[in-house]
Records
---
Amino acid sequence: MNSNAVGDLSLRHVEIKPSPQALLRSLRGLGYSPETALADLIDNSLAAGAREVRIRLEWRDGNPLVEILDDGAGMSFDQLVEAMRFGGAGPDVERKGDDLGRFGLGLKTASLSQCRELTVASRRESVVARLAWDVDRVGQGWHADAPDGSPPGELAAEFQSSGNGTLVSWSKMDRLGGLWGLDRDAFNERISEIRAHLAMTFHRFLSGEARRLAISVNDRTLAAWDPFCRRHDATMALPRDIIRGPDSAITARPYILPHRDRFASEREWEDAGGPGGWVERQGFYVYRGDRIVSAGGWLGLGGARAWTREESSRLARIALDLPVSMDEAWRIDIRKSVARPPAWARGRLAGLGADCRRRAREVFAWRGSRSGGRGRRSDTDGETSWPWETRSGKAVPRYRVRRDHPAVAAVVEALGTESMLLEGLLSALELTVPVERIWLDVAEQGGGEFAQPIATEIAELAASLASLVRSMSNRDDAGVRLDSLLRSLGVIQPALREAVIRKVGEI
Ligand SMILES: Nc1ncnc2c1ncn2[C@@H]1O[C@H](COP(=O)(O)OP(=O)(O)OP(=O)(O)O)[C@@H](O)[C@H]1O
Ligand SMILES: [Mg+2]
């Protein structure tokens, strides 16, 4: 016991050592998922200058082995001892600009959240060092094991004959193994989720936008997943915005992704949605040193009633780049999966977010908008094609049938003096558009798409639409091709389109 006088207070110190087993057990519960844990190890490989990271996950009858092998600089025995120390180089240590580490914990906490035995083997200048933490053997002291070999796996065999680099092996896996009730199929499913998560988190490295890193999972190289669909020509990139803080700046770039109809196939649309899907993946993508820490969500912005992830704003995504030096201000957590904007940035970010959400809603609802020209269906004559217009005043938007639409004009003409009847009917319909009902239906259905007519409805629809199209094309000022008349009535589904054309020919 020491005693120490501070002012007039006399303090006595009592050393209280953590209980290794209890502390380890608690650290295991930090809340990593297998994919966030692997991402943490990839951060380390990047910091060690690796060009390639190979990951293997083997099921082994419910007793899985996970291996991560990189070709980075590797560690000497002394360096490995420091690497295996809990709380080695903590937040106060100065780090290189591209070092994604911060807490001196990731290697240990991320690994032991998934397994009970962590073995690290590292080769530097032809010398191999190896240390292991075994949760069940830590006992009362902090004694790591120094085994002669790594758990036998495919990458362990390769490590034997490779150059500088580090092999991390997770064995006695509980979280991903049979112990947690997983079966082989569920394990494989998790591997797909891991692939998707890593392809997203490290997309700038995988694509070479940042320093290039190749990552493979079970021998399949990951392709970058770009959250902003920048290769799609209908993606709208809004101007970059720089938000200056007390000592450094963050960059924000909003994107409005294309409407569902602009994707060539359902599959492409789903892919572009990303892990968890379109609704989940809207919002801010926070990058810390080019690596994504948080993919989507509105960062608690939006005022008293913070914005939620809504169907209608699902096409809004904003890239936000933070320098690693802003960790403190953004309260980056140990798992590097949560970031919170500091007060000085909130106003600007909220402005950007509101603008991006508004534009995204416009694209989302393009069929109801006057300028619906962003949708494929009205590419050629967007201004005149759509029979609906939205009047959004201050209160609730109103939906009106356009009186100058060729179909309406044709019917007015045909009715002659009786056309007031049509006007009455349209007005009554407009007053009673079941907006809430439609909204609920679309939200519940989840897709935000309107049902297309089914086979049994087609014959009936075709007959009535055909006579309307006929009278539209009979008008003197029509002069429009059948094609665009059909489009202007929303007749785009191939089967219905064919049926109407056939009927028009018969009339
Ligand atoms: N694959 C690797 N190659 C070389 N050195 C490594 C590797 N993995 C870890 N290290 C070394 O071990 C140290 C500890 O890693 P660990 O992930 O526990 O903490 P950190 O990266 O410093 O911080 P954080 O907790 O934020 O990840 C690293 O700082 C690095 O020096
Ligand atoms: Mg780390």
Note: The pocket of adenosine-5'-triphosphate (ligand 1) is lined by residues 40, 43-45, 48, 70, 72-73, 75, 83, 88-89, 101-108, 166 (CB under 6 Å).
---
Amino acid sequence: MNMKAVLFYKPGLIKYEETNIPEIKAGEVLIKIETALTCGTDVKTYKRGHPLLIKTVPSGFGHEFAGIVFQAGKDVKDFKVGDRVVAANSAPCQNCYYCKIGEHNLCENLDLLNGAFADYIKIPELITRQNLLHIPEHLSFEEAAFTEPLANVVLGIEKTDIKPGQTVGIVGLGPIGLMFVRLAKLKGARVIAAGRNPLKLKLAKEFGLADEVINLLEVSDPQKAFFDLTPEGKGLDVAVEAVGLPELWEKVIDLVRKGGTVNLFGGCKAGSAITLDTRRIHYDGIKIISPFHHTPRHFRESLRLISEGLVDVKKLITHKMHISEIENAIQLHNNGEAIKIALKP
Ligand SMILES: [Zn+2]
Ligand SMILES: [Zn+2]
């Protein structure tokens, strides 16, 4: 049996074409995709490939999705044909050193699932068992598809340990930065969101409920713009980089007060290096963290936040289109005109 899917051949070359519907084995399920979301990672992958996501070509493409169980393999107990479900793009192996010490996001055998821009996707047994969830009745497929990207931010926020009343600055307002704004507000922080794109600055207020926004194109000294908004002008309690550029990592480190926390959340290209003054870490006592990915616990917490209406993810969908328009979708992201695009088969 055939289906249509977006396949990645090499950087800059993807095709929407006929391919086989994956066959499932015991413990696996086949999902009929209802909604897939575009993500910054897809755009990066399109431009330069991806060491973890693309291992052989042609490869499936896209990793944020929700749909309906179309086939359930032998031994699958919790899901039946017709169930509305959302899956994460990975699940920990539960066997490696990191899984055994409870650091599941650092699992050495994370096998990232790709291929959401298609009619169907096969969910491997590990994910079916740990990271496939039923979608509550009142949630749409579009909303549920946000569970994976938001789960990354749920883990990122937990590691940051924000206290109520603290002043938190977030630099970079793509979907991840915007979700960071929202979750920092839920922690009771006063949040300053900084970016350059008017659409994203508007969403920082309307979706993230940011207290202040800084348009980085309009200020000559971004550090001063942040400091002026902090108690006694000492600097932020917490600064978050949500872009993934080494030069920005260096700048964000200088936004926190003594004893502050810096969360360098945007992953940079492999081999990137930064320079920093050791005084900041030692005499100023700042803490630098850079958390990655999510775990089954964060994936569940993410779906709960969406389900209870605490994160109104619908506001982040700026476009809806057919999967065949994938190249147009990537272009819109590149131009900064899109936040999230909901693709339908
Ligand atoms: Zn993503
Ligand atoms: Zn593991």
Note: The chain has a mean pLDDT of 96.
